[in-house]
Amino acid sequence: MPYTRPYYLHFGLLFAIIAVSNSARSWDQAVVIGRDVNFFANKTLVGEAKIADAADLSSAAYDDTTHTMFLSDTKGNYSLFSNDLKQAEFQPKPILKRENGSYIFGIAFHVKSRTLFWTDAGLSAIVKMHIPLNGPPGEPKVLHDHLNPRGIALDVCNSHLYWTNVDGSNSSIERSSLDGTNRTTVLSKELYEPLGITIDHAEGRLYWTDDKEGIHYQIESSDLDGSSREIVHRGRRQQPVHLAVDRDNVYWTDFARVTVWYLPKHSNTSDDPVLFKNYDHTDFDPKGILTRDNSGNINCALIKPTRREKDVVKPATVVLPQSIQSYNNLTTSTEETDSTADIPPTCLNDGYFDKTSGSCKCKPGFSGAVCEVSLCYNHCLTGNCFINNFGLPECKCPKPFGGHRCEKDLCDGYCLNDGYCKVENGKPSCKCKMSTGPRCESLYDILEICAMYCASGQSVNLRTINVDTCSCEQSNHTAEEIKSYNEDFAYVALLPILISLVVMLILVIGVLSYYVNKLRRRPRIKKRFVVRKGGITPLTSRPQIPDNQCEITIENCCNMNICETPCFEPNLRTPTSRGNSLKKEEKNSLLDNMEGNLC
To answer: Is residue 516 part of a domain?
Structure first.
């Protein structure tokens, strides 16, 4: 929970500037931009305060009784008190250290109670701190949390705190008492991104900016209770952020054009805004803006009557129980009997009556004159409400709901493809049927989906299955039979591939067998000759070979034994006819070559 420990440290986030010059009025409007505070009188720049230790000032508040200005910084480390607004150098005095992730958007100061209020958009809280005249500031205390606040404003005359809450289609303007009780929603319809907000104490009206979707924006106002709402100005291509009013005009800072604009409060909605100050030559955006008329000492008795007689919200009248009225009407006369003096007061919801103050003291979670108002009443849309350590209502949500008021179904639209959603430890998770993934976003294969779809007493019709639909056939098969059928389908799908592979293998084997057989049948021709001088005699038998003769074998593969002779070319093809003279020459040549190689 943010802001739960002491924050009075040497460095801080909030700045305050104390002017010790005379109390004569020297400025009408003040604008913070970057490290500077610009002061204007009659819409003319009359002074500039440079805060050397600042980084990026965001908002300002002013105490006219002590001439003290409070400033917030979104990026620096310091909270400052310093001297004289017209001097160029200031002596910083820190009051709050910047929390990690903190982003103070708006601040407001209540003079009577000397309390500084601010909205922290980074830590989603509204916080207050007591700033005494002397001594160190008090510890920050959270008034409201678990929201998305932006601008903040004080209704001094009715002791109400207003703020804008940005939440998309659920954006709102809310208010509460200065102690955080009696929180209520003032406006919640037709709001997109309300940012700046201020109270016009001169007329008792509420003003705010609304950065509409796209290029449009509006400046609107209403009674302090949200009634009598009207559009002050409607425009395009601006981004109004902070807002201020004085007796005549409405002022706002524009992030889009790095400019400050103003318009008369009662101008037409289509009137063009008037340029107040252009900062497009700087490296910073103008942010917080305040007016002296609406920040000084407000005399609530002099607030002029409004057009609708609802502008000042009066506290509701509560009729006290008879026992408390009787107690308050008691006198100290000695003639009263003891029985009358001892009438016990009736405070509801375990509250007790404080004789000193003459009122009921309520336990945490209840408020009202007799503790009749429960803060948990209608707070949680579902689940159970309890009061946290800050005295605020909080919801314990049942599954699958979540959110500040248990208004969100965490499972709504979370699981895809008909997945089943459940909430564990405040986070949704999915149990998938026909898909996989954290949100069941990845579908299974179509066959698996159809098998699941047709599992109860049906089988997949394999002839009509496609990627879009599953067609099933009625059957009386058991689950095991259906499973076996699905396995058979997978086998049938692979059968053509296997047959093709077998046919190709048979063809390869056939071709190889043909060529191997052809090579094996090639003829092996052998001829034997008895060689001797004077001629060649083929051997038809194997007689005793004389000493002057050799037996040789001539083959088509040039196999040689005993004698080295040329290869004999077998008659594989039809031999060409040769004459007897050519044959004799070949035999003679063969005998001549063998003379030196006789066996």
So the answer is: yes
Beta partners for 537?
A: 530
Nearest C-alpha neighbor of 323 from the set 303, 363, 365, 351:
351
Q: How far apart are CA 396 and CA 383, in angstroms?
A: 6
Which tokens hold the place of 127?
A: 């916080």
Residue 179: Cβ-neighbour burial (10 angstroms; 0-12, 13-18, 19+): middle
CA-closest candidate to residue 9, choices 116, 94, 100:
94
- CB atoms under 10 Å from CB of 135, counted, come to 7
Same domain for 480 and 589, yes or no, is no
Buried b (16+ CB within 10 A) or exposed e, 518-538: eeeeeeeeeeebbbbeeeeee
| In a shared domain, residues 414 and 271 | no
The residue from 239, 272, 294 where one domain ends is 294
Find out whether 390 and 142 touch, Cβ atoms under 8 Å. yes
Range of the domain at 537: 526-571+584-597
Domain end position, chosen among 443, 468, 500: 443
- Tell me what percent of the chain is helix, strand and coil, each rounded to the nearest 5: 15, 35, 50
Least confident span in 155-164, 188-197, 573-582: 573-582
Residues shown for the chain: 599
Q: Please count the structural domains in the chain.
A: 4
Q: Output the domain CATH number for residue 113.
A: 2.120.10.30
Task: Give the model's pLDDT for residue 442.
Answer: 82
Please give the model's pTM, rounded to 2 decimal places. Answer: 0.52
Q: Which two tokens stand for residue 67?
A: 């001439």
- Grouping H, G, I as helix, E, B as strand and the rest as coil, residue 52 is coil
The number of angstroms, rounded, from the C-alpha of 109 to the middle of its chain's C-alpha atoms is 34
Same domain assignment for residues 157 and 244: yes
pLDDT of residue 592: 63
- Whether residues 274 and 164 share a domain: the answer is yes
- The CA distance from 358 to 360, in Å, is 7
Structure tokens at 181: 């009780």
DSSP 432-466: -SSEESTTS-EEPPHHHHHHHHTTTTEEE-TTT--
Listed in order, strand segments (DSSP E) in 337-475 are 352-354, 359-361, 366-367, 373-374, 384-387, 393-396, 401-402, 408-409, 420-424, 427-431, 435-436, 442-443, 458-460, 472-474
Between 152 and 169, whose confidence is greater? 152
* Residue whose token pair is 């009438």: 343
* Whole-number percent of the chain with pLDDT over 90: 24
The proportion of the chain whose per-residue pLDDT surpasses 70, expressed as a percent, equals: 64
**What's the rounded mean pLDDT across residues 170-185?**
93
User: Does residue 5 lie in a domain region?
Assistant: no
* pLDDT at residue 207 in the model: 96
| pLDDT category of residue 81 using cuts at 50, 70 and 90 | very low
Instruction: Say whether 595 sits in a helix, a strand or coil.
Output: helix
Based on the fold, state whether residues 38 and 163 are members of the same structural domain.
yes
Half-sphere exposure of 352 (CA within 13 A, CB side): 4
The token duo for 568 is 């004999």
